[in-house]
């Protein structure tokens, strides 16, 4: 039996404009990395978020929280691990662990975060998420809990 | 007796690159607006954050949380209200209310947020915040509680 | 006779996330400041760019060039001077001078830039710009040449 | 004889915050993609730009020009082709072609660009680029001309 990805992992490299004069990544950019994390998790559920949006389901962030443990630096290789934490008919919560990949050692945890997204129509009205999508998210959640 | 600003208010206009294809402001940019809010609050305490940093105190965000009530749109006039919520020797927590200014009506609340910052030396080691700064923040806090 | 603004001037303060680890403003952000410059120039012509877009005229950048003379730094007060350089039925070219405002001295030139914008329908098809808008731009151009 | 890469190619996926309400990528972000392009080209010359900077050579953009042929969209797979166009002792010019990768078809050209960078010390004084770096860039240039 194939299991959906429990923790979806994606890697990226820190870009120069993501740094600030402190020499670290500016704290707001981690939210964009969380976005990349859930985008790639969603892609494994059978349809990309881009398609979901074209079909009329927009996912807007309604809550976000981040804890910063250590700073990312320019050119670091970053790992974003994303998992589904809670699924309702109109909202989904993702949890993220963002780490620095260190050759020959354990990844170093930089940020842990959580975002809740609410499904909207193109007009901005809350709506139920499509069934296939809720099922995919629940499958991912169940696999994670197993 | 002059009171320090209890809620510091700053206004800004939404920039085109802050919008995304959903037609709203991308959720990460509100963190940059919170940054502007606390920067202007800090300026009223006698020294700018730029000076604070040149003198060896860096303030790095250690925790952030945001609740999104309604979306900001391109060219909206935005108000950021910032207040000091908690002050310790090495950390300070700010609370923010971000609203849309609507002519002839009450501002519309868009986002409420909270960030905790930790004082660091230039090497990234935690340090006590300068006395004048802690006192300024505490004055602002006390005035707010009165 | 009221003359349209020849060089429209707008001021802004450098934001922390606009800096990079070199300690300067990242070079791409000046394009966003040019955008602010032309947005405010356009506002003086009777309708905001936001309204123009809602009425079906999108202005997309087709060419951009920038020369960087000196770097902007965090918390600098920046002046963006914008003028209309050329107007055709479907395109308009703006020229910009971006300077640092220095108290008690001449502003220091940081960047000179030029962008050409092409008018598009919402589908992305090139279109003529609205008459009032072309006339406003030509008025600004003529006043500048006088 | 091994030849250095003549045109260095790197691919990336368009991120949601890179879009704007027009539904396209905001024009300033292409400069960040050019940055990624030359960073990866530089990496093939034996040392990363991050190392170059740690060793005291900063490369600051002194000129940039971009021509926008067609817009990138969210989730597009983007190819950045970078080549060295001119090398002097203190400056280097890179040329870029940014395309959309289209399955089963030729890539579609979106933007062509050019940036000149000047070598600076950590204080911002112009300096000669390190010999190994000039030689690497010249090798790449020569290979491209062959």
The low-confidence parts of chain A are 1-5
Return the average pLDDT of chain A rounded to an integer: 94
Structural class of chain A: alpha+beta
How large a portion of the residues of chain A is in β-strands, by DSSP E? 25-35%
Q: What is the H-and-E element order of chain A? A: EHHEEEEH
Oligomer status: homotetramer
Biggest interface and residues each: C-D, 21 and 21 residues
Largest sheet of chain A: 5 strands, antiparallel
Radius of gyration of chain A: 16 Å
The global form of chain A is globular
Tally of DSSP helical segments of chain A: 3
Distance between the termini of chain A: 14 Å
Number of strands of chain A: 5
Across the major sheet of chain A, the strand order is: 1-3-4-5-2
What percentage of residues of chain A falls in helices of 4 or more residues? 10-25%
Describe the structure in your own words:
Four copies of one chain form a homotetramer. Chain A has about 150 residues and is of the alpha+beta class. Chain A has helices at about 30-45, 50-55, 130-145; strands at about 10-15, 60-70, 75-85, 90-100, 110-120. Helix content of chain A is about 25%, strand content about 35%. In chain A, strands 1-3-4-5-2 form a five-stranded antiparallel beta sheet. In chain A, strand 4 (about 90-100) and strand 5 (about 110-120) form a beta hairpin. The longest helix of chain A is centred in the N-terminal third of the chain and has 15 residues, at about 30-45. Chain A is globular, with a radius of gyration of 16 Å. The model of chain A is unreliable at about 1-5 (pLDDT under 50). The interface between A and B is medium-sized, with 20 and 21 residues.
